[in-house]
Design the sequence.
């Protein structure tokens, strides 16, 4: 069991029964129109009124996610916000469940917040420009030296701007459900920024968007922001052990992916 505190978050929590697929099917077209219409508006605003867009970035990003949650009848329960909203740089380590993650994390976007994206995305016409204008941070994963250099630059910006970074240590969502092994990127970033890691446990998303389905269902998603984990003094040789300890904390709340050996 992890040595880190779970705060007051209950280890056992059962999401209310999700709704049927009918609403999700009916709302596919409205959700599509909202999602892409809002993105189009955001892109236009970024180029036409960049200063206004920068000042209202948080509300614009939240509106996108909240609109989709409303259309599909997804309710959010947030607990431990005091662990998320303290001033200063921090890394929100989140479990990656499904497509609904995008709606949820966008709906509760906090300021100043950012994400890391692969350099390849930045080369896509328009997309890369928009991501930079939104304040997202590019990371080069082409080779080890380039990755280290770009991560160092990202860490410098995170420290100086006091950013909140959303990152999924699993790297990608599980094909079979459950929590996968953690990759090391989040922990290297924590070491370089000396920023606390805030474990952010999302539950209920697997019922709202069942594995293998593109249809959303109405229901409740609960997110517990656990007490921050200090990273001051972390050294490279101990990062693997630190990642295991943090993952053990997640496993107190979430099942292990079935394709991960015991």
Sequence:
């Amino acid at each position: 069991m992890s040595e880190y505190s779970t705060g007051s978050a209950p280890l056992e929590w059962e999401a209310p029964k999700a709704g049927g697929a009918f609403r999700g099917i009916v709302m596919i077209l409205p959700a599509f129109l909202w999602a892409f219409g809002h993105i189009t508006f955001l892109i236009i605003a970024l180029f036409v009124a960049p200063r206004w867009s920068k000042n209202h970035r948080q509300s614009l990003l939240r509106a996108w996610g909240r609109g989709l949650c409303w259309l599909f009848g997804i309710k959010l329960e947030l607990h431990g916000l005091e662990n998320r909203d303290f001033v200063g740089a921090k890394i929100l380590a989140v479990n990656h469940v499904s497509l609904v993650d995008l709606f949820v994390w966008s709906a509760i976007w906090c300021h100043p917040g950012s994400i890391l994206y692969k350099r390849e995305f930045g080369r896509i016409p328009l997309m890369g420009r928009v991501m930079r204008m939104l304040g997202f941070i590019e990371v080069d994963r082409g080779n080890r030296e380039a990755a280290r250099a770009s991560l160092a630059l990202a860490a410098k910006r995170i420290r100086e701007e006091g950013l909140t970074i959303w990152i999924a240590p699993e790297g990608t969502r599980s094909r079979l459900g459950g929590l996968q092994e953690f990759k090391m990127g989040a922990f290297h970033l924590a070491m370089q920024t000396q920023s606390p890691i805030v474990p952010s446990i999302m539950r209920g998303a697997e019922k709202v968007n069942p594995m293998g389905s593109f249809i959303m269902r109405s229901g409740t998603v609960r997110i517990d922001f656990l007490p921050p984990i200090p990273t001051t003094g972390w050294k490279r040789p101990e990062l693997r052990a630190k990642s295991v300890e943090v993952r053990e904390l997640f496993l107190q709340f979430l099942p292990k992916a079935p394709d991960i050996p015991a």
